[in-house]
Amino acid sequence: MGEGAGSDASEGLDRLLTFLKRRLNGDFSVDAFGFDPELTEAVMLPALRPLYRHWFRVEVRGIENIPASGAALVVANHSGTVPVDSLMTQLAVHDEHPTHRHLRALAADLVFQLPVVSDLARKSGSTLACTEDVEKLLGSGELVGVWPEGFKGVGKLYSERYKLQRFGRGGFVSAALRSSAPIVPCSIVGAEEIYPMIANLDFLARLLRLPYVPVTPTFPWLGLLGLVPLPSKWMIEFGKPITTDGYPDGAAEDPMVIFELTDHVRDTIQNTLHRLLEERGGAFG
């Protein structure tokens, strides 16, 4: 081992020991939503980087469209059977943006009903996808991420890949309008291929009270090995911000304004997906 490598290892160990000492002494802070930035940067994001850099080989475009500071709402498509896309998007924003911003993800109720997962989600900055929490985060100048397709997007069959599902009722648009926060469309290519869902065991999903129980080419046939995601090539593109501060008072309660803006965001993401798919070529190239 060279002298430089030994020095790097020593510095890494020192940082780890300092981090552990602070944790044991309770010398850290979390915000009102339970977000622990130090734990996120020291443990959670590093655990995801090998997937991001070497397995999915994520290519990020348009990172300059994420504001350097202040409130903004990132709206993305959702897919992949397991919502890995939200994790990769959070890492993309932190690692690729010059100011290393944290994307505060909005998650479904089910996430916060699962042991361990719930605690990790809170500590990494996620919160419940409800209007009250979104408006509080935007009101305090945070960068918020939402995946409006929800489980309809994550749990769709492989035959429906890259076809956007319904974007809910436009609650994310109302929150952005009330906060005068720009909306940044985000298009993610690659997640659809990591766990190609060829069937859904509806009867078992109902029994377990889950949105779906997937069958993929590798799961459940290969057991735990079937949980390893396929190494698809990913592209994440952040589009030009759509401003919301020019709308008149009361726009957040106007169904037509919400419908038109929601449709505009959805169409922007869908059109970008078509373009990215053509540019990427083969899913595993």
Automatic annotation (TrEMBL):
Keyword tRNA processing: no
Example of a GO cellular component annotation carried by this entry: membrane
Coiled coil: none
Keywords, sorted A to Z: Acyltransferase, Transferase
Organism, scientific name: Phytoactinopolyspora alkaliphila
Single annotated GO MF: acyltransferase activity
Keyword Acyltransferase appears in the UniProt entry: yes
Protein name from the UniProt record: Acyltransferase family protein
Domain of life of the native organism: Bacteria
Pfam families: Acyltransferase
Domain Phospholipid/glycerol acyltransferase: 72-191
InterPro entries with a match to the protein in the record: P_lipid/glycerol_AcTrfase_prd, Plipid/glycerol_acylTrfase
